Amino acid sequence: MAEDIKKLHEDFRKQNKSCFILGASGATGKELLKEIIKNQIFSKVTIIGRRKLTFEDEAYKDVIQEVVDFENLDDYSSAFQGHDVGFCCLGTTRAKSGEAGFIRVDRDYVLKSAQLARAGGCTHFNLESSKGADKGSNFLYLRIKGEVEAEIEHLDFDRYTIFRPAVLLVDRTESRPAEWIAQRALVPISYIFPTTFSVPLTTVVRAMINNAAIQSGKKVELLDNKVIHALGRVEEPKKK
Question: I want to staple 43 with a disulfide (CB 3.0 to 4.6 A). Which of 16, 24, 89, 105 is the partner?
């Protein structure tokens, strides 16, 4: 399987695709950027965010940074132009930003970014959502995730991939007490049910990269936690 992934990556590189990442300062976006740089499957990589990031590693020297004001995204439409593939890892929490702030970031900012990406020529949009996302849910978090999933589908991308991971196993720099407790509780359970309740962050981002290289032929893809595990467990063999 590793050899198959290597061949897929090699074939994908030859297409000279460009990509952008939304939310590269967050846990998923940061790890995704790291894996993309390591695998070198895109000819151009752009990160779009509210502030410029500092990288000490020379490997990041060619990464393009677009600083935008998410409250006035229409003024920054040029940042979303000229990308083949988009990865959206943008998000916050109700505890950090309040209910209105959470809705604004996880629904409004994400949807507006997707609209600009579509207008700018992006053909494959990848959205990090959540296990249980449902626009009809009584839980705010799951409802907003479901709503934005549905709204982006209406934009009619050539290919639209939704990732619905369960609890992410990751060490965050920011404090998220509820997530920390859930992670600690799920560590022993994950040994018994490894693909059901949780997923390592590295597995999620590898699944994103591997899936991008696969020509699935599907217009809309909904990848649950089990599929993410399967796609992300395989890493391209290290170069000798």
Answer: 16
